[in-house]
Amino acid sequence: MPRQNLCAFAFVFVLGLPAFALVRSRAPIAPSVAVKLATVVPQGSIWDKNLEQMGEEWAQATGGRVSLTVFGGGSQGDESTVLRKMRLDALQAAALTGVGLGTIDAAFNVFDVPFFFESYDELNDVTEKLTPSIRKRVEAKGFVLLNWGHGGWMQVFTKRSVKTVDDLKKVKLYTSAGNDRMVQWFKANGFEPRAMAMTDITTGLTTGMIEGLPAPPLAALLFQWYRQTPYMLDIGLAPVVGATVITKKAWTAIPDADRPKLLEAAAGVEKRLREDVPKQDLSSVTEMTQRGLTVTKASGADWRAQADALAKTMRGEMVPPDIFDLATKERNAFRRQHPSGSVR
After folding, report:
1. How far is Cα 186 from Cα 164, in angstroms, rounded to an integer?
2. How confident is the prediction along the chain (344 residues), in pLDDT tens digits per residue?
């Protein structure tokens, strides 16, 4: 074998590509990029199915040059563990909830401000306006934002009926572990937070460690949390906004020509979730009500005053001031253009 072919063979062998590929084309062959993506969303759920579909579209659009394997159901650990694995390159991507996203950059916490958004249309408009700024912040942390994920609208599920702010402040309320600032923020505002991993919620409810949790109805149904929290306060606390991110290391390993194809498939996931999740959220309430869930409405004028006070404490403390102010500006602009609003 000529010396140059021996060198080419050795190069291909090291990369793990089939040696016979050399004789099929003289043009350089792009190596395959294998992306492992982890998420805590339940296997078989609407989010899991969309991620699997995205993987199929990635493989098809790139002719197999990029493959995506989805590890769902928290099989790779909680989100802090997943992010640690991504930094070690054991995982390359993740579909994260606001909990994990907030540990990447505090800008994502803007979606957790109570009662900040009033409708999906308003949320989607502001999200689009925030995306360029948040994308830059994420890239500075070593990640690339692929798409947004929609998880429904947060309601409050409790073991006993809750109608007033004072009622809620007496409830041992779940909050995510790993975010000490959020725990301290809850305490400073008179609540009784109990920090734990999302995977421990069922155990916490069973043992009485927690007596309630904020969650979208679809999640409460999928995880069966409503069975131990038979009361839902229909209050529209905040939207549940997630996102899919990939490490910059993995992204730069993907051929330039393939990246727009991957982003197009990721945008398809975002579009489908925008359309389907709100419908499933509503149908979940109907189904749980038929199984014994009691839906209550908030009473008293304290909720709005409390929400405004909480929002002010989050600016600068939980949400970067520039992101908070930009979101407020765009939200108010949307409301001026759409004074009638849009029903969730």
Report:
1. 17
2. 444 443 433 333 333 434 333 333 344 445 589 999 999 988 899 999 999 999 999 999 999 999 999 999 999 998 999 999 999 999 999 999 998 999 999 999 999 998 899 999 999 999 999 999 999 999 999 999 999 999 999 999 999 999 888 899 999 999 887 767 778 878 888 889 999 888 889 999 999 999 999 999 999 999 999 999 999 999 888 999 999 999 999 999 999 999 999 999 999 999 999 999 999 999 999 999 999 999 998 876 677 777 777 778 889 988 999 999 999 999 999 999 988 655 56
pTM of structure: 0.83
Residues 6+ apart with CB under 8 A from 219: 151, 152, 225, 240
Structure tokens belonging to residue 230: 């038979």
Residue 93 CA: distances (Å) to CA of 46, 61, 67, 242, 243 = 19, 19, 12, 13, 11
Distance CA 287, CA 282 (A): 9
Q: Report angle CA 140, 317, 233 to the nearest 5 degrees.
A: 110
What is the Cα–Cα distance from 79 to 88, expressed in whole angstroms? 14
Q: Residue 79's closest CA among 112, 51, 103?
A: 103
CB 106 within 8 A of CB 320: yes
